[in-house]
Amino acid sequence: MQQKQSNSIKETKNCWWYSFFDTWGPISLTVLLYIGIRHYIAEARYIPSGSMLPGLKVNDRLIVEKLSLRNRAPSRGEIVVFNSPYSFDKKLIADRKKQLPSKFQCSFLTFPLISWIPTLSDRACDAYIKRIIAVGGDRILINGKGEIVLNGRSINEPYVEYFCPSQPRFNLCRPMTTIVPKGHVFVLGDNRANSWDSRFWPAGGFLPQKEIIGKASWRFWPVSRFGKLD
């Protein structure tokens, strides 16, 4: 009698476990697979602003791949997605009223659905997208229009249509001359007249290479403009 009761209890426990696993197992596996792919291989991002016009438009959906930049340094001209300056710019961090969120907290806050809750957002967890203009050791000069002289030579930028206005009264662009330190890159938006980029970050404007999340490689939405990014 006791043996039968013991077997019945075991069967009940096994039944509960299998029922739980059948329901939550696939969901848990999907979430873990999503997190693993997102962290190590690639992830989808969307364009929230017009700083990369005309090439990348607001609400474009992109694939950001993370493998290529693990084995080499980033190159001039590449479009990269990187951690928010609010997470690495020393002056912006000094102005914070609360502690920086951890990587785990940012992973949670940027998870789909959760990231849509405004009260939970933190600017330090945001991601930015810009184009690499200069790498470590480069000497760069930017004039008031946003045009570039790199290592003493003017560079052709066919992807830029919107330079800064020539009227000083309306020009918010910042001319500058600087040398990019090793281990860093200098990034600008293609929309030079409307981009918060290396020209304006208060602690110097250099993006540490370790803050780069990945390279923006493909646009998958809208379908009419599907293709590889230049």
Please give the oligomerization state of what you see: single chain
Largest beta-sheet details: 8 strands, antiparallel
Give the SSE order as H and E letters.
Answer: HEEEHHEEEEEEEEE
Helical fraction = 10-25%
Mean pLDDT: 84
What is the CA-atom radius of gyration, in angstroms? Answer: 23 Å
> How far is it from the N-terminal to the C-terminal residue, by CA?
75 Å
Question: How many separate helices?
Answer: 3
Low-confidence regions? none
Structural class: alpha+beta
Strand content: 15-25%
The counted number of beta strands is: 12
- Described by the principal axes of the CA atoms, the overall outline is globular
Overview of the structural elements:
The protein is of the alpha+beta class. Helices cover 22% and strands 24% of the residues. It has three helices and twelve strands, in the order αβββααβββββββββ. The strands form two sheets. Strands 1, 2, 3, 4, 9, 10, 11 and 12 form an eight-stranded antiparallel sheet that branches. The chain is globular, with a radius of gyration of 23 Å. The model has no long low-confidence stretch (mean pLDDT 84).
Keyphrases for this structure?
single chain, 230 residues, alpha+beta, 8-stranded antiparallel sheet, 4-stranded antiparallel sheet, 3 helices, 24% strand, globular
